[in-house]
Amino acid sequence: MKLHTLKPADGSVKSSKRVGRGQGSGMGGTSTRGHKGAKSRSGYKTKVGFEGGQMPLQRRIPKFGFKNINRVEFKPINLDTIQQLAEKTGATQVDPELLVQNGLASKNDLIKILGRGELKAIQLVKAHAFSKSAVDAIEKTGGQVEKI
Questions:
Q1: CA quadruple 121, 123, 129, 135: dihedral positive or negative?
Q2: β-strands 129-130, 110-114: how paired?
Q3: Which of 72, 76, 74 shows the shortest CA–CA distance to 116?
Q4: Which of 54, 76, 108, 129 lies 20 to 30 Å from 41 when distance is taken between CA atoms?
Q5: Do 77 and 113 meet the contact criterion of CB atoms below 8 Å apart?
Q6: Is 49 left (phi over 0), alpha (psi -120 to 50) or beta?
Q7: What is the pTM of this model?
Q8: 71-103 pLDDT, tens per residue?
């Protein structure tokens, strides 16, 4: 075997269709585009979503709802998750940095503490927002809540 004897495996390379090269080829004349009309011309293209004059799908379906540009999105974290984190790390104070280090939030997240579960050994919880039930549960166990 030498470099000049190499060739692709049989059937792996297909030659392209050569159109517009005379009647004898079977693909001369109209070059497989049919007769006349916009689709046979060079430079032809349709509008995106055009359905031949039928009312297009994006216009048949009704509009609804809206996006509130003032919405503030919080990352919800429950008390039972914080308790598991405290048991794992031995922390007595929970803040966004601790949550980011342990993969429970990303550094740009706004964090809201929700009230599912209960805390045992946490003294201070810092977050951007708290639910009423979370505040009650934290203060019931002698802890403090600090809004950032």
A1: positive
A2: parallel
A3: 76
A4: 54
A5: yes
A6: left
A7: 0.59
A8: 999 999 999 999 999 988 888 899 999 999 999
